[in-house]
Design brief:
This protein is 38% helix and 18% strand. By secondary structure, the chain is an alpha/beta fold. The relative contact order is 0.13.
Length: 200
């Protein structure tokens, strides 16, 4: 299974729900600005519970976008080692969006979320309603731009990876069928084309 990396812009977002990541195989990097000398106990405790899957990256220098450039560098370095990895940038800074668009053009799987709870797998579970699942899948697919799956089998695998659990073939087929019934996709001889809302 591809690694899911969570890169937190701690100058911009102070997540209070980091413990939610413990239930899933995430690797978490918290980027701390040069002038940030303290982190809340709750964050430190949650990072400690992640063990080797949690890491702080302290920025040495100051300046506009200094921390953003560090996040960009780490994504590049990690993507070179693990091209199948998925990257979640946790930041409210829309300045990341042109970089994300460029990376997606290079087939690097990356999204920006404003909070940890926006990460698809944290919103999805076996108890999640069908409508919520479809909405989350559609949002993810819309954000993929030209790198959307073009075959039904690849689409099913993509949906399964959102859940980070083993959905059976019947469940996946039902979700694909529902996407089709809502006219988000058109399936022709195993090939998929899309009619998705524009990604933000």
């Amino acid at each position: 299974m591809p690694t899911n990396y969570v890169l937190i812009d701690f100058e911009n977002v102070h997540p209070s729900n980091l413990e939610a990541l413990k239930r899933h195989p995430f690797k978490v990097l918290v980027f701390v600005g040069a002038n940030q000398t303290k982190v809340p106990f709750e964050l430190a405790s949650a990072m400690q519970a992640l063990g080797n899957c949690g890491q702080y990256v302290k920025i040495a220098g100051t300046g506009k976008n200094a921390l953003d450039f560090h996040i960009a560098y780490y994504i590049g370095e990690l993507a070179a080692k693990e091209p199948e990895a998925f990257f979640h940038i946790i930041s409210r800074d829309s300045g990341f969006d042109p970089l994300i668009k460029h990376l997606k053009g290079k087939k690097i799987r990356v999204q920006r979320e404003c909070d940890l709870e926006e990460i698809p797998v944290l919103r999805l579970s076996s108890n999640t309603s069908s409508d919520e699942k479809i909405a989350t899948i559609v949002k993810n697919l819309a954000g993929r731009g030209q790198s959307r799956p073009r075959k039904v089998k690849t689409l099913a695998n993509t949906i399964n990876s959102l859940f980070m659990e083993n959905l059976n073939d019947q469940q996946l087929a039902a979700l694909v069928k529902e996407l089709e019934q809502h006219h988000y996709i058109i399936v022709t001889n195993g090939n998929v084309s899309y009619k998705l809302p524009t990604s933000k």
